[in-house]
Amino acid sequence: MKLYLCGIKSYQLDLGLKCTAFGDLRLEQTLAGIKRDYNEPQQRQRTPLTQPYLLRILDAIDNTSYNSIMTCAAFTLAFASFLRVGEFTYRRIDLDLGATFRNWFLTQSSISQSDDGTHMTRTLHASKTDPFRHGIQLVIPSSTDSGYPVAAMRQLIRIDSPRAPFAPLFCLGKQDILPFTREYVVQKLQSLVVRCGLGGEAWNGHSFRRGAATWVA
User: Do 28 and 57 meet the contact criterion of CB atoms below 8 Å apart?
Assistant: First the structure.
């Protein structure tokens, strides 16, 4: 409710109107009374996808199909890079952005593999913590741990058909090239956790970033 009131106040300020009512003590008392009479809404449970969970999920992925290899690369990159789900997925309508797609989403050129295979560099062109779009680079080392994305990304590049540097980094279907959507990621994650016996938890798109932060902490 306070957010709605802030929006109204901002709108009035833009119109050059006085906003004295928002400083009225009676408004504060009204909000306090409403808060006492109504319980706080129940918070949605979000299970953090920590590394042990991630490794079990990766073991449940059949790395024989193009989509499976793509999913494995996406999941490991999301975890290792602390990515929000909206930072590695996109919708069909986003493809209409044309050349500016690369300014907002991960593309083939966002990943740079070292020649000796010891690390990779991921460039994120847009995020909530980078409002001026300077771009954020992250170096991810190679590891024998299957939870690291370097090996998975190399496998994806090896089987992927040559695509333009500014084509989406992830897509579904080697021939169809369908959008790699948030809905697909959540649905795939939920089906995999059921397959490996973790289905009783609340898994969703926040699980990767939340899980990586929890595991590092």
Answer: no
